[in-house]
Specification:
7 helices, 20% strand, globular, binds 2'-deoxyadenosine-5'-diphosphate, binds magnesium ion, metal-binding
Length: 140
């Protein structure tokens, strides 16, 4: 499997509860490497642009407001099969359905406040990394 990069976001519910380090440790323990990282506070508009693919879903307004409610930590993770590996470490969207040991099982509060975002395909990863980072900020 090829070395890949994926976009990870530690969401407001997790930064607020001071869980950034514990979440990054889960990714690092799985063999993923942080090659870019920053803490930012999204505006409602920026959150809306990032999640534009979900604009028609009933929870879109709530999702954007939540993502803009507190700071987030956006990171690029690199490793073998990083896109799938990151999703595996995150666990299912709904923490009630997430496997034991996953970030969402251990830390997520609900389907909406679920602690982490991870790109779901190579195309999403490329778009989402470019949304937050310039090439200069990716330090492999
Ligand atoms: P994922 O984050 O696992 O890729 P997704 O892309 O389907 O899940 O949805 C994006 C985010 O939207 C998700 O992390 C939390 C929120 N969301 C999804 N389904 C929801 C629902 N039924 N109710 C409230 N929020 C939801
Ligand atoms: Mg998704």
């Amino acid at each position: 499997m090829a070395t890949e990069r994926t976009l990870s976001i530690i969401k407001p519910d997790a930064t607020k509860r001071n869980l950034t380090g514990k979440i990054v440790a889960k990714f690092e323990d799985a063999g993923l490497r942080v090659v870019a990282s920053k803490r930012i506070h999204l505006s409602d508009k920026q959150a809306g642009a990032f999640y534009a693919e979900h604009a028609a879903r009933p929870f879109y307004g709530e999702l954007c407001a939540f993502m803009a409610s507190e700071p987030v930590v956006v990171q690029v993770l690199e490793g073998e099969g990083a896109i799938a590996k990151n999703r595996e470490v995150m666990g299912a969207t709904d923490p009630a359905a997430a496997d034991a040991g996953t970030i969402r099982k251990e830390f997520a509060l609900s389907k909406g406040e679920n602690s982490v975002h991870g790109s779901d395909s190579p195309e999403s990863a490329a778009r989402e990394i470019a949304f937050f980072f310039s090439g200069l900020e990716l330090v492999g």
